Amino acid sequence: MTRAVLLALLSHWRRAPLQLFTLIAGLALATGLWSGVQAINAEARASYDAAAATLGEGRYARIEAAAGGEIALADYVALRRAGWQVSPVVQGRLGGVRLVGIEPLTAPGGIGPAAEDADIAAFLTGVGQVFGRAEALKALPGIDAEKVVAPDTAPGTVVTDVSVALRLLGRAGFSALIVAPEQPLGRPALEEIAPDLALRPPQAGSEVGRLTDSFHLNLTAFGLLCFAVGIFIVHGAVGLAFEQRRPVLRTMRALGVPLRRLVALMMAELLGFALIAGTLGVGLGWLLAAQLLPDVAATLRGLYGAEVTGGLRLRPVWWLSGLGIAVLGSGFAAGAALWRLARMPLLAAGGRRAWAMADARSARWQGGAALLLIGVAVGLALWGEGLVAGFGLLGAGLVGAALALPVVLGAVLAIAARLVRGPLAQWFWADTRQQLPGLSLALMALLLAMAANIGVSTMVSSFRQTFTGFLDQRLAPELYIETADDDQARAIEAFLEPRVRSVLPLASVETEVAGLPVELNLARPDPTYPQSWRFLQAVDRPWERLAAGEGVLVNEQLARRAGLGLGDPVRLGPDTVLPVLGIHGDYGNPVGQVIVTEALFAELHPEVVPRRFGLRLDPDEVPAIRAALVAEGLPEGAITDQAAVKRFSMQVFERTFAVTAALNVLTLAVAGFAILMSLLTLAALRLPQLAPVWALGLTRRRLAGLEMVRAVLLAALTALMALPLGLALAWVLLSVVNVAAFGWRLPMFLFPWDYARLGLFALLAAGLAALWPAIRLARTPPAALLGVFANER
Amino acid sequence: MLLRLRDLHKSFTGAEGPVPVLRGVDLDLEAGESLALTGESGSGKSTLLHLVGGLDRPDAGSIALDGTRVEALDDSGRAALRRGTVGVVFQQFNLIPSLSVGDNIAFQARLAGRHDARRAMMLAERLGLAPHLSKYPEQLSGGQQQRTAIARTLAARPRLVLADEPTGNLDETTAEAVLGAMLELVSETGAALLMVTHSEHHAARMGRRLHLHAGRIA
Fold first, then answer.
1. Which is nearest to A571 in space by CA: A596, A546, A589?
2. Could you say which of A66, A122, A422, A581 would form a disulfide bridge with A542 (CB–CB 3.0 to 4.6 Å)?
3. CB B111 to CB A346 under 8 A?
4. Contacts with B94 from chain A: Cβ below 8 Å
């Protein structure tokens, strides 16, 4: 019996190949977009994890030199003798590759290279071994050590023994000491053994991970929206298939097929399709990710310094989750249809339920659900707090607006039908309204796709605009230099004073304000700051008052976390309490920041001598000053050209744009596909509605033209609704989700030309989608139209 | 006795409360017997057929079919009854449009686990369907579609054939031919036939006839 029923169910698809194509293609596209984005995220996260595993980043407390610089071997030996379980680490760059030296015998478990056949003796003795990915080892200049390929090492990083690292980098001291989690009781305090060293507590998460989370969160949100658009297509295809097979299902039950068996077999059929489409989707996602990953890797490297490989690995978790989401998505899309089948009475009136003609009751239900969801979204916007509320607002708002679309369009079309004169116009508007239920799923998909486009491009463009301004503000000096030690710093500063317009010292110390970890930075009074810095809020003449020692400047993150406003006191020391003079945006920085005047910084931390400087000078003099600095003994690598940094940053943004633009085009293509499939499936049901109008004197060509106009008109009305929805989406991403997730708010800018261009693309997509069904209609043989009247259909 | 109905009641819920359709029907049918059930529209003919076929449940009374109490069966039991014991021929044919004529004929026999290719072929030939086995239902005339439905029912060798106005959608000449073929084949299989019809002429061709009036046997 099972075989006979299954064959009968499957035979439907042989007779309706277009419907099968819609179902498989919709699900495959949805899965492809989702799993492509997930693949990119998974690859990036795997890279961070590898980095964390190599260095124990964030997991362990570290001891560092309080004033920056290296830790002397003597301090390390003193700490070990006093009972401190610490392990030395050396970090530096060699030929563009990050070289990390560890001491495997003392390092806490889980740190270091994970080559399966690692030979610890070879690692520690002789010329030593350097572990890394093949591409990182290849990038290393000729070194006096054996190269061993270890694929699980972090991208762009090689690992070796600490002594080998010291030798290769030409260093004498360690970069940091990793503190093992378990330490003997009663050991002397760090200050007693090495007062120049400071203990940094472990971080809850990898710093790189936190910095890049914003990027991944937005990519994930975009992937989810793409998936939702695809699921709308699948919902339409599955719903149509169920409704078309309703009489057959009833017949099968009348012939003795038990209901449970029928439901189970339909679920099995759907599962089979989901697995086929999911596999295709995972393949599509793989291609998509492979295309986009180099751009994403470059973006992350440029934005946050996070190393991500440009290659893609087939991770079981990734493809399994791709298949899983395809199955879940199709289950979600088919849930209502299966529920209706399970409850379908055996003797209900036969014939096809008007799939395309949703009845008034379901329209009222849909309108009510839309109102409820929009109400929930408004409530969350007004009173919600935190990331969950942000995503709840996003989901409720988008689904509510999608459900409201047919109701709003129905009302607009009803008004239009009342306003027009002439029989053809009246028929056109009334007929368009009648088509609405059949097209509503595709139009909802278009609404979501356009809203996602507007929302995400507004967010990315706002981010770019803000960040460009931010770069101008932060990278105002023409050159940056870094000196090796305090003596060189003093000498170079003295050398530069007469040669450049101004020398801006840069230094920071980690401290605490209001119980929160912050970086304390210094600012030397200089016109550069008031000319280039922009504040979110500030008192009158903040830089002048800062220079006069009347207050401090804080970043947005600290202001939000500590609840600081202008004029609020900030305690920097036992006797140092100063008011907030300004709050500045500090995009991408996870920690709070306080800026004080140079004099106060020196008073609070006399042990810290600034070793980095920003130089203001005529851009034409940059080559000469650079040459002079090299002649003074500063290595080339210690001098950074601001223009090069800015140029690179802007290239990074262009790559980010390439990623989002590609995803935008794909989402819009999926929505266009949804419209095409809806129009094609409706075309067969349309003949009885069009035949009488044709018989009354309208040519097939004219009817086809009107069908095109109808599709473009509905797309235009949908685009009008998508604009406020997309802007609301951008606002939620920028002002709610970003603030809840990362503590800073991005200002929102509007890009009307971009929206107009997108609207035109949407109309073009709708027009193209309507073209094929229209051509088919124009070529419909008169016999087929006459068949309607002969009741032969 | 193949079929025995006793004091069968059934009502449906209307806008103004329950509407009684069957008000205590008694009926007996022997194996191999043919019985026409006539009556005006709304007299409960189709409802009676649905109750016997396990497509619906009675409010009260008993239905004994081949020793089985139909009213006591659950959903899966009634589905098994429809597969194995009863065959239903509908007025609307109810063929599966995506299966070929040959597959439609074999469908119910396959469900019942009694598929016999030679018997299916014999039925197709006797009903004039042999040249059309690879066609699809939409490519057949109304008479051919109903003959396919009859072949589908008889291929499963049911003990009782229920026919709900099987010629109601056909012209007079075609209806005569279809009915003649059905009666001949049913009598050859030894199955009982219970047919609902509005036609006095068709009723006269059956072994026995009963008239339903206002939910009771008149």
1. A596
2. A581
3. no
4. 247, 250-251, 254
Rounded to whole angstroms, how far apart are CA atoms B165 and A261? 30
What domain range is A424 assigned to? 368-475+645-793
For chain A, say whether B95 makes contact (Cβ under 8 Å).
yes
Is the pTM above the cut of 0.80? no
In a domain, residue A221? The reply is no
CA distance A276 to A269: 11
Out of A322, A355, A388, a domain closes at A355
Domain ranges of chain B: 3-217
User: Within a domain: residue A594?
Assistant: yes
Residues A75 and A195 in one domain: yes
B98/A254 Cβ within 8 A: no
Q: Is A5 on the interface with B (CB under 8 A)?
A: yes
State residue A629's pLDDT score: 87
Q: Provide the domain count of chain A.
A: 4
Shortest distance, CA B109 to any CA of chain A (angstroms): 9
Min CA distance, B55 vs chain A (Å)?
7
The topology under which CATH files domain B3-217 is Rossmann fold (3.40.50)
**How many A-B residue pairs are in contact by the CB < 8 A criterion?**
75
Whether residues A791 and A661 share a domain: the answer is yes
**What stretches of B30-116 show up as alpha helix (H) in DSSP?**
45-52, 75-84, 101-112
- Torsion, Cα A523 A527 A532 A533, to 10 degrees, reads 40
| Domain-ending residue, one of A316, A331, A355 | A355
Q: How large is the ipTM?
A: 0.81
3-state secondary structure of A427: helix
A235-292: pLDDT as tens digits: 777 777 777 788 888 888 888 888 888 889 989 998 999 899 899 988 888 888 777 7
End-to-end CA distance of chain A: 31
